[in-house]
Amino acid sequence: MEESGNGRAYSDAPTKHQDGITDVKKDEENSQDGKHELHPASQYEDSQSQVRCISCLSKTSCRIVRSRTKVMNILIEKGRPQEVQSIFDSIIEGGHKPSLVTYTTLLAALTIQKRFDSIHSIISQVEGNGMEPDSIFFNAVINAFSELGNMQEAMKCFWKMKKSGSKPTTSTFNTLIKGFGIAGEPEESQKLLELMSQDENVRPNLRTYNVLVRAWCNKKNTVKAWNVIYKMVASGLQPDVVTYNTIATSYAQNGEASQAEGIILEMQNNNVQPNERTCYIIVGGYCKEGKVKEALLFVYRMKDLGLQPNLIVFNSLIKGFIDSVDRDGVNEVLKLMEELGVGPDVITFSTIMNAWSAAGFMDKCREIFDDMVKAGIKPDAHVYSILAKGYVQAGEPEKAEKILNAMIKTGFCPNVVIFTTVINGWCSAGRMEYSIKIFEKMCECGITPNLKTFETLIWGYGKARQPWKSEEMLQIMEEFNVQPKKTTHLAVAEARNATGLKKEANRILSAMKNEEMSRKTDREDEIPVGSLEKHYQKPGSNFPNQVQLPNLVISDQKGSGSATKRGRMVLRDTDFSLESSWTAAISLSLSHSCTFGARSPIICQKQSHGQLGMYNQFAHSCPLGVFLN
């Protein structure tokens, strides 16, 4: 077989190597001898796709291919699978022929990245090059299809593997069992377990049963999951902490945190020690049910298990108490953290910042930010986004823009949501010239505006009584390949209608209706022409509400004017020294690179003036900033 001389660089998982990428490159340089001379490219019509290496043509082991395949494996081990493709391409472009090991490694890297569209292409290339797939390549293909959830193709490959003479291993069956679990077919996973018992060459191991337990738990069928555990014990195997954590997770996700806690007794009866993940699962389950006090009591009981709660557990508790508006609970958790020597991280700070921002107290939010910087913790994109949205909600877009500029200076590239948030702030203030400046800066940073960005600008121009510019936005949208929707056309029509140009508004609506009828692709219910305000929500009230303070954050019945007034009154025109903290943050973030896809920041609903007394009580009695400092 062709692979006999190259050595196996990839098995079920990438193999460990003592040497690094640098050593591989040295080996590659030393391999430039007569055996690896390339045929002149002029002899071939396509020099990039044609093999020109004498060793590759003679089907002997090629050091270049072998060393670069080794680099590919090392990149996977180092968690950099996205770089594997370029190494593979360099083999092709260099006039070499990839080995079966190379193709197997490439497939593994693409599977890790969930890039499943290349599976068939790789199989075709292997077969087209006359290579005979081995069991490791078959397993890689089965794993790729299983991760995709395409079990028809995975099983097709399985039977092809058996027909070729390659023997499936326990790992092969485990992969298929996992795949049917991903596909939501645990019944088929169960059948595979029975099939294993008929094959004398394979035997279920602990992972086999754990994967099957997870498959049933994913279908919320804990009864079947327990039956698998009983079968495991009957076979002579004992469940481990992974087994019990899987069951506990299922209980916690289904609103049965107390049942999840009961798993600990079962673990102790079977001499299995709970770990930190066990505790996090139970605490998370209680918090999800709103039973944060029960979660805290369980944390105290963790000491009896010989475990100390980690920062993930504490952050879950802090968020749970904040969601319940329980300042005493937050303080108790922070005090416990201090006693156990567990320091806060950026998630701890951002969770508390978000609480102050959602309650409308940007001064307190800013204090927490300052404490974080002084503690030497680098702000992330989510932290900056909380500040930006908070200032926009408080009617202070100039401060939100400073946040934006600070992010860029510290190496963070604001995402489209943050840019649109600041644009919305200036639109709400009626300063469209500043909104357009932010829009231009967004484009300069390489961030593509989305539909929400354009609808925000359209609404802004309508508010500024410049409806002709709202229509111009439709043309700019075409340049960015952003397709307008009903809400977009309704926003343009509303801009015309607001300035008394009802005829123009009706023209836009008629054009929209005719376009829908001609395309016959929009299946939505027909929207009446009248009462445009009911069909188009202004951008300022349309951002997601992921984190709120229940029973305190309510809609403002008096409109956005009173909400803005409330925000300004709470802040009392406090003038913060923004530059001082930005300078400190910059010094902490020199190593940051441009980050796309940051978490969407949070904006709360508008609060009513009548709740200010409750907010002030929360603010003055909760010394979060002092403690964290």
Key terms for this structure?
629 residues, mainly alpha
Short structural description:
This protein is an all-alpha fold and 629 residues long. Helix content is 62%, strand content 0%.
Topology:
Elements: H1 21-30, H2 54-57, H3 63-77, H4 84-93, H5 100-112, H6 119-128, H7 135-148, H8 151-163, H9 170-182, H10 186-198, H11 206-218, H12 222-234, H13 241-253, H14 257-269, H15 276-288, H16 292-301, H17 311-323, H18 327-340, H19 346-358, H20 362-374, H21 381-393, H22 397-409, H23 416-428, H24 432-444, H25 451-463, H26 467-479, H27 486-498, H28 502-519, H29 560-571, H30 578-588, H31 612-621, H32 624-628
On the 0 to 100 scale, the average pLDDT is 77
Portion in helices? 55-70%
Helical region count? 32
Largest sheet: none
Instruction: Please tell me what the overall shape is.
Output: globular
In whole angstroms, how far apart are the ends?
66 Å
Into which percentage range does the β-strand content fall?
under 5%
Uncertain runs are 1-19, 27-48, 520-629
| Number of DSSP E strands | 0
**Helix/strand class:** mainly alpha
Task: Please provide a written account of the structure.
The chain has 629 residues and is mostly helical. The chain has helices spanning 21-30, 54-57, 63-77, 84-93, 100-112, 119-128, 135-148, 151-163, 170-182, 186-198, 206-218, 222-234, 241-253, 257-269, 276-288, 292-301, 311-323, 327-340, 346-358, 362-374, 381-393, 397-409, 416-428, 432-444, 451-463, 467-479, 486-498, 502-519, 560-571, 578-588, 612-621, 624-628.
